[in-house]
Amino acid sequence: MSSSCAVSTSVRTQLFSSVPENRFIAPTRPFQYHRSKCVMSRRGFAFRGVAAAGLSVVGSSSLATEPAQGIERLPFKPEGYNFWTWRGHKIHYVVQGEGPAVLLIHGFGASSFHWRYNIPELAKKYKVYAIDLLGFGWSEKALVEYDAMIWKDQVVDFLKEIVKEPTVLVGNSLGGFTALVAAVGLPEQVVGVALLNSAGQFGNANSEPEKSDEETVLQKFIIKPLKEVFQRVVLGFLFWQAKQPARIESVLKSVYKNTSNVDDYLVESITMPAADPNAGEVYYRLMTRFMSNQTKYTLDSILSKMSCPLLLLWGDLDPWVGPAKANRIKEFYPNSTLVNLQAGHCPHDEVPELVNKALLEWLSTSTAEASLQTV
Fold first, then answer.
1. Local confidence band at 231 (pLDDT 50, 70, 90 cut-offs)
2. Once rounded to an integer, what is the mean pLDDT over residues 347-365?
3. What is the dihedral of CA 342, 345, 348, 350, to 10 degrees?
4. In terms of CB atoms within 10 Å, which end of the chain has fewer, N or C?
């Protein structure tokens, strides 16, 4: 994962608990489908559920090194795979296979290597791309102002400059929101979206707009600088803690209900990017500027502008983003298919065989497949 692989327990709880959750556990079937038609409405887009598989907690380290049994795994390359220059910044991506295009987008703190069990299988039928968002993974730890729109712009430009054909976007956690805003930003090329335990929240119709009073001299020259110094000290300590392998392993195990895939490969894919010289500063910017601006956008705003088919692949045992959110998205956007999985926050890595099966079935039967074939 990236420079930003840690958030305190209280912050994680706040980010992910955007709706009350009534847990649903299917007693017999590993997943089940619910289909529908099409609708939308408007607002903005938010990142309350913006973390993924690499945050922070203490733990010991006894990791398996073998890949999941019977599933092909993307080879781990410390030097990365392919690089593209975007706005002067180095962006890492993986590409495999031939056929219609599918782009995989990782979650907060992760990288393209988090799709290690999905890329080889999907590449048997599709041309699969997996990108590292700016500030994460093997992409540059750029010292820029981070906002949801910077990742949207990155994905849109990647589609235009590298992929250059109709594409289905697949995103986990933060990557799910990025997929949604990119789909709205480039509707002529994005023909379908699949969300895996996506971050974001619906708008509150009863909330009043925030009032922005002018800063006083006291606020500008004393309170604000002191607040920044305090934030830097606290977040610097949290970042140092967060990049320790034992803490990364512990958090992963807290969101993977089946922890057999929490191995050296996964932990190393998180710790390596965190060693980048700019990683700490990127983490600070993400935790202060990006997180403080998250309520500028809401799920209903994005979905109201979208028209392509939507697949919801949801780990119902996710301690952060439970099935209640998936149900609400489906209710709001009927042109969707819901697949419930007995997994945590990262079903694509925890139960990759089920995710691959569901994704391939949806691609082959939905209107997204027909659109993919149209050049």
1. low
2. 96
3. -60
4. C
C-alpha to C-alpha distance for 130 and 111, rounded to whole angstroms? 9
Classified as helix, coil or strand, 140 is coil
Highest mean pLDDT among 15-24, 104-113, 250-259: 104-113
**pTM > 0.90: yes or no:** no
Tokens of 14: 């706040």
Indicate whether 285 pLDDT > 90.
no
Alpha helices in 219-263, H assignment, sequence order: 224-242, 245-255
Q: How far apart are CA 74 and CA 76, in angstroms?
A: 6
**Residue given tokens 């999985």 in the structure block:** 341
Whether 367 contacts 309, CB under 8 Å: yes
Q: How far apart are CA 103 and CA 111, in angstroms?
A: 13
Name the one residue in this structure whose structure tokens are 């913006």.
Answer: 50
Quick one: how far is CA 227 from the chain centroid? 29
Got the DSSP string for 269-315? HHHHHHTSTTHHHHHHHIIIIIHHTGGG--HHHHHTT--S-EEEEEE
Residue 88 DSSP symbol: T
